[in-house]
Amino acid sequence: PPEVRGMIVAGPGNVLVAGDYSQLEARILAILANDFSSLVAFRLGEDIHSINACDLFGLKSVAKESPERNFAKSFLYGISYGGAAETLKAKLFCPCPRCIDKVQATPEMPRARMKSMADRWFARHPAVVEFRRALRKQIVDFHYYESPFGGRRWIFSPWQEAEREVYNL
Question: Cβ(71)–Cβ(104) under 8 Å?
Fold first, then answer.
């Protein structure tokens, strides 16, 4: 992350290389779920995090480095990886002096607002809802997840314990 880049220095004769996969996880979710609106956005070369920020905050557009976009990025990945409104609030709140003026979840932000943001996102992405439902059903019924390439990952934990692990496959 940008906050730690200055803390890491390559040793003499070495070079640090950073790679950006350009919203790779969001793209994978869109493909696995066959999420039409996200797939169209990617096909048009749009920034998925900016689009989500507009949806979350009811804006027409946002700047690439805006606090709203950063919030939407964290929110999307939190939702994508099985986070609930209650856990997202905790993960999106940072009280440090550097973050305090940025748009973020706050201790005062009601859980209901976080939940309504998640509900709004899922309403716009019904294919993701269906993908998650089908994934849950497959694991509950058969105790494995089958990847698009045919590989199976066996899961024997009860769904409540396995849910976060499953969405992180």
Answer: yes
Q: Following CA atoms 74, 79, 85, 87 in sequence, which dihedral angle do they give, to the nearest 10 degrees? A: -70
Tokens representing 124? 């716009």
Q: Which residues contact 148 (CB under 8 A, 6 or more apart)?
A: 32
Residue 73 one-letter amino acid? K
Residue 108, pLDDT score: 56
Question: Coil, strand or helix: which one is 152?
Answer: strand
pTM of the predicted structure, to 2 decimals: 0.71
What span, in angstroms and rounded, lies between the C-alpha atoms of 28 and 2?
A: 24
Q: What is the spatial distance between Cα 26 and Cα 131, in angstroms, rounded to a whole number?
A: 14
Ranges of residues in the chain whose predicted pLDDT is under 50: none
* pLDDT at site 40: 94
End-to-end CA distance of the chain: 23
Q: What is the pLDDT of residues 6-53, one digit of tens each?
A: 788 888 999 888 776 778 888 988 999 999 999 999 999 999 999 988
Cβ neighbours, 10 Å, residue 78:
20
Please report, to the nearest 10 degrees, the dihedral formed by the alpha carbons of residues 21, 134, 132, 163 taken in order: -100
